[in-house]
Amino acid sequence: MPRRSRSTAAAEEETTNTVVFEEAEEEEEDSKPFIMTQTQFTFSQQPADRSQAVDIAKQSEFKKLDDLAPTTRNRIITDLSRILLFKALGMKDPIDRTKVCAEALGETKGLSKAALNEAEKRLRDVFGFGVKKVPACMEENLPARFKNRLYLINEVVDDDMGTHSLNLHSANRDTMTEKGLLMMVLAFAFCKGTSQVRSGLMKGAGKKTRWISEHHLYALLHRVDENIPSEPPSAEGRRKSSSKGGGGGRQSLGGAADGGVSDTPDIDTLLEKFVAQDYLLRDKIDEGDEGTGNGGEDGKVIAYAMGPRAAMEIGRRQVVYFCSNVLDENPDPTMLAEIDEDDESSEEEEEEEVEEEVEAAGRKKRQRRG
User: Fold this and answer.
1) How many other CB atoms are there within 10 angstroms of residue 245's CB atom?
2) What is each CA distance from 58 to 62, 74, 317, in whole angstroms?
3) CB 304 within 8 A of CB 281
């Protein structure tokens, strides 16, 4: 997902642009341009949530890396850079730090942090990507597996037309539909969801994260597009779909070629995809006081929330402004204040961590002298 696709002051202008999509035809070798005139709204671009930099290796680890044979050192850094780039842009999967470092280092041990630092430097210098960890404001509220997650973030400042993001991510009908749906789901989750719930597997995630039940989400999406089912797939439908490796498997949601409604996305499948890519979190939460009767035997319902990848690439503030631009209203000051409070807390925590590291380093030096 592009982090900076637009850079305009406000959503005040409506422009008509010609977008050219390249559609490959099975019968023909050459692609024919498909020209579609569409109406686009421009949105004010807001900064994404603060992400965390990867841990910096100790000087002794950098020295061990530099002491390797030049060809071995270069191979490790090159392989790790390629793996990070392929997983982020090709497979679009979340990156597991331990796995990618082990794959690149092979039999070489104890150099993962230094190799990752050097690979990030190369990716930033060549492509403008930064390697980041889960935002500090979310880390303590997520399962342990997210502490090992890495994400490539586009740090290049784009122009007003979003040229860099368009060249990087392309603009075609499928990707635009997916990104549009993701923005809608994030908007509903953050602006219509609630944090006054207790989480299930997500340890403590109900304290800050806004969750929206799947029944509420599908009902809202149905109001946007009547071809989208107003109810989520049944438990049986999920099991059948899972065995086939797909989403909800309800053909009415697919494109015209699948016997469905053209341009209506397959919500079931895409929600699964967004969860797998860490753009969304999914958990079972308490149904709450509203008592809709949609909960299972344990009184819990499946719910969705903004994932760490969406927080870093899009951000809560952007979602709030997106909603205000669409509705032609001022951004909700309460939500903006909540985000500002989290940012201030994150900055204070980072400052405390730096102070603790400095103090620890000082103690070690004094111990050596003693």
Assistant:
1) 7
2) 7, 19, 35
3) yes
The end-to-end CA distance of the chain, in Å, is 53
350 Cα distance to chain centroid: 22
SS3 (DSSP) at 159: coil
pLDDT tens by residue, 91-124: 788 899 999 999 999 999 999 999 999 999 999 9
Maximum Cα–Cα distance for the chain, whole Å?
79
Structure token pair of residue 323: 């909603």
DSSP 24-44: --SS-SS-EEEEEEEEEE--B
Instruction: Please state, in angstroms and rounded to a whole number, the distance separating the CA atoms of residues 108 and 112.
Output: 9
DSSP string across 351-367: HHHHHHHHHHHHHHHHH
The answer to whether 132 and 80 have CB atoms below 8 angstroms apart is no
How do 280-286 and 149-154 pair as beta strands?
A: unpaired
Residue at token pair 């990087």: 168
Tokens of 296: 């299972």
Assigned token pair, 198: 């207790």
Distance of CA 101 to the CA centre of its chain: 22
Residue 228, token pair as written in the block: 């989208």
**pLDDT tens readout for residues 7-53:** 333 333 333 333 333 333 344 444 443 333 333 334 447 777 878 88
* pTM summary value: 0.73
Nearest to 339 by CA among 369, 309, 314: 314
For the chain, helix (H) and strand (E) counts, in that order, are: 13, 9
